[in-house]
Write a structure and sequence with these properties.
The structure is a single chain. The chain is mainly α. It has helices at 4-12, 16-31, 36-56, 66-82, 88-106, 115-135, 137-140, 165-188, 191-201, 203-208, 213-239, 249-262, 268-287, 292-305, 308-317, and strands spanning 146-147, 241-242. The chain has a two-stranded antiparallel sheet with strand order 1-2. The protein is globular, with a radius of gyration of 19 Å.
């Protein structure tokens, strides 16, 4: 008889290379404080990419609308701070309910149609969210956006851009990313995560086995929306500025590119892909500011042609 629970427990065990990744991130922040702002950006982008991996990698649902929740979380954190509740943890908590509600309300739109339809629908949701923010300037600042201040974390550690602020911001973002990654990892290795894999591989067969694909897609899409909202709130709090650019299409396209670079379906793909994308963008844009997007595109073509997908599958099999 197959020991299903024992198999799931073995999959949940942390590998040495996973621990090494997190320790390396802590070391990079502490040993290279001059690059802490860049590392912080990469960590937030990694959390944003993780939100997409939850729906694309685990459930096989494509989306170009994660920017809707990213921007919503950022604006919620900014409005909360301007209302006098400027504790960073309060801002993160405040971003969760609106992101979850919008995710839950829009998730049923993904239950019909093929991948192309879902791409268009999710992209439309992000565009609508951006226009709503633009038309309600009394709350969001409209095209001017919002500037705000957040209090020091735990009353002691500034997460601004002065002094130790960038380093503290990076450590804060790393802590949030680790906690949410831990939750995503547990979810992926749980019976619910296994059922999502069944839905991803063959929705009709999963339905015949009694697995409700609709409920699971709605649930994981809502969770992914919360992750994206928290990522947006983190970006807002560590930069202390928000604008309509957060809802733009390039946000969703960039996070999709990060996931393609790192590989979908093994959770670390978003984190690795975000790091690679942010570092290469920083290096290439400094060398050739006008053509950095060309070199990013060329790198993507090389990755696809060199069989990165086969390598990603091999890594997943060896876990």
């Amino acid at each position: 008889m197959i020991d299903v629970l024992g198999h799931l427990r073995r999959r949940e065990r942390w590998r040495w290379w996973e621990i090494a990744i997190w320790l390396a991130l802590v070391g990079a922040i502490l040993l290279i404080p001059s690059r802490a702002a860049l590392i912080n950006e990469a960590l937030i982008a990694g959390l944003f990419a993780l939100s997409l991996d939850l729906i694309l990698g685990l459930a096989g649902v494509v989306s170009l609308g994660q920017a809707a929740f990213f921007g919503l979380g950022a604006y919620t954190a900014a409005i909360t701070a301007n209302a006098g509740y400027d504790d960073p943890l309060v801002g993160l908590a405040a971003a969760i309910p609106p992101a979850a509600l919008v995710g839950l309300a829009t998730a049923p739109l993904l239950l019909r149609g093929a991948d192309l339809t879902r791409l268009m629908v999710t992209m439309a949701v992000a565009l609508i969210a951006g226009e709503i923010a633009n038309q309600n300037g009394w709350l969001t600042g409209g095209a001017d956006g919002l500037n705000f201040m957040v209090a020091p974390l735990f009353g002691r550690f500034s997460i601004g851009s002065i002094g130790d602020g960038p380093r503290n911001a990076a450590l804060f973002s790393l802590a949030v990313l680790f906690v949410l990654f831990f939750g995503a990892r547990r979810l992926a290795h749980s019976p619910f995560g296994i059922s999502l894999a069944a839905v991803r591989e063959n929705r009709l067969r999963a339905g015949a086995l009694g697995v409700s694909s609709s409920r699971r897609i709605v649930a994981i899409y809502t969770v992914a929306a919360v992750y994206a909202g928290i990522a947006g709130a983190l970006l807002a709090e560590t930069t202390q500025i928000v604008s309509l650019d957060l809802f733009e299409f390039h946000r969703s396209a960039d996070v999709m590119l990060m996931l393609i670079i790192g590989g979908a379906g093994w959770l670390y793909g978003g984190v690795v892909g975000a790091g690679v994308f942010i570092v290469i963008r920083d290096v290439v844009s400094a060398a050739t500011p006008e053509y950095w997007e060309f070199w990013i595109g060329a790198m993507l073509v090389v990755l696809v042609l060199s069989g990165r997908e086969r390598l990603a599958r091999l890594v997943r099999l060896r876990r």
